[in-house]
Amino acid sequence: MSRTATEIATQPTCWRRAAEAAAAFDGLPQPGERVAVTGCGTSWFMAMAYAALREASGQGETDAFASSEFPVGRSYDRVVAITRSGTTTEVLELLGALRGKIATLALTADPKTPVMDAADTVAVLDWADEESVVQTRFATTALAFLRAGLEVSGPLPAGVKTVAEAAVDAELAVTEPLPEAAVSAEQWTFLGRGWTYGLAQEAGLKMREAAGAWTESYPSMEYRHGPIAITGPGRVAWVFGTLPEGLAGDVARVGGTVVNRASADPMADLIRAQRLAVVLAEAKGYDPDRPRNLSRSVILTEA
Question: Of the candidates 98, 256, 106, 290, which has an alpha carbon nearest to the alpha carbon of residue 185?
């Protein structure tokens, strides 16, 4: 078993620990604050998911930006940065630009990195750190930590499960058989609405990183506005969360296949996509722990 597969399987335990940590942590966004969440790559997609979920919970206006595209001149009460390695250049540069102007919180897996001094407050989720280059459990654990903070501050939107409930769904997701249509497909499009759109983006990225797969990601309702043109036999539309009315029929009409587990927490459903990426990588003879052209952290040097 690859290291990535082993780390994927530990996520239910990591999420439960994240919920406990969040309940005792002082420094999470408070209701009514205007917040921005940032990161790079996978961390950016987790930021997108949290931002949409926080706004839907009525706890305050929340934006998400890739760290390289952050509008530094914009006013926020707090900025949350997600960085597994604690060394990502764009994140550290942004935190430096915000120091003394806006309160900052960083989520990281490594307490021996520059982010410890770059942010005002740091949540160290070192039990979710990974040996694999590909992010799986740290990303979802960071999102679980932030989700649990929303639970502490107020009710979640209707239909959104608690982190404890999501962990129960995750236990099934790490062991159940993957959909055969997804395993045998040649192309995958991941879809989501609201906070699950960030998860759809991450699922597509994971498939590209680990397996070099042809994947795309869109908001669910945008799928019929162009992307459906590529749908056909051997191609899958994987929908996180609630399946929009009529979408399954539209996909079937052009020969595609819908994959949807609406009863499962969308974050648990992401585990299935992570597992699919590993299966496809191994089928191609790739090493899912060390994908081509990637490193654990992007550290830029001056020209």
Answer: 256
Which of 296, 278, 270, 266 lies closest to 156 in space, CA to CA?
266
CB neighbour list of residue 300: distance below 8 Å, 6 or more residues apart: 89, 90
Rounded Cα distance, 236 and 183, in Å: 10
Q: How far is CA 144 from the centre of its chain?
A: 10
Q: Identify the residue whose tokens are 């399987």.
A: 9
Q: List, in order, residues 6 or more apart from 69 with CB less than 8 Å away.
A: none
- Share the mean pLDDT of the chain: 95
Total Cβ atoms within 10 A of residue 152: 12
Instruction: Round to whole Å and give the CA distance between 282 and 257.
Output: 23
Degrees (nearest 5) of the Cα angle 78, 83, 84? Answer: 145
Q: Note whether 219 and 192 are within 8 A (CB).
A: yes
Whether the Cβ atoms of residue 170 and residue 265 lie closer than 8 Å to each other: yes
Scored b (16 or more CB within 10 A) or e, 142-151 reads: bbbbbbbbbb
Residue 46 φ then ψ, to 5°: -65, -35
Give residue 69's pLDDT: 98
Nearest alpha carbon to residue 5 among 151, 193, 206, 146: 206
CA dist 270 and 201 (Å) reads 10
**pLDDT (mean) for 44-60:** 98
Residue 303 has pLDDT above 50, yes or no: no
Closest of 2, 95, 77 to residue 40, by C-alpha: 95
Question: CA-to-CA distance for 169 and 67, rounded, in angstroms?
Answer: 31
